[in-house]
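Readers of this paper often ask what the protein records in our data store actually look like. This encoding replaces a full spatial description with a residue-level series of whole-number codes. For reference, a complete record is included directly beneath this paragraph.
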Amino acid sequence: MARFWTKYRFSDNAFSMQRILGIDPGSRITGYGIVDVGHGKVSFVSCGVIKTTPRFPLANRLNEIFEGINEVIQLHGPEVAAVEEVFMSTNANSALKLGQARGAAVVAAMQNGLGVHDYSAKKVKQAVVGYGQADKGQVQHMIRVLLGLSATPSNDAADALAVAICHANQMIL
């Protein structure tokens, strides 16, 4: 039988509780979402966005993302991070910036001792909406329903929560 350890307690059967940080990287806005998963249930902890300063050079904005993710990790204490992969864009420059923003977030997670898991946007949408080509509005709606939220989170925060739920689904299976 597998044995798992979390900061909540030691268990011999699957996992008792785990806190997951979902990240939707972006060079202007990086979304984050935190859920707890345990006993086959996913529950909302927190979500939000890290907005970078538009007039700053890219290097400074990457540092803002790194520091913002560090702050979220210190505040909420997740054990693992799930990050959306970079999608191929028609604009190579945009894809490169997105990749660098993703890298800043991944390094922040790794520097804090979190395991990092990668998920494609299609896999995330499939896990949350049931359709890999779902639009942002559908993702937002399902996040609100699945987590029993009283308000709809922003696009970026909802996407980050969706990434966290996608990882939770992988753990439960």
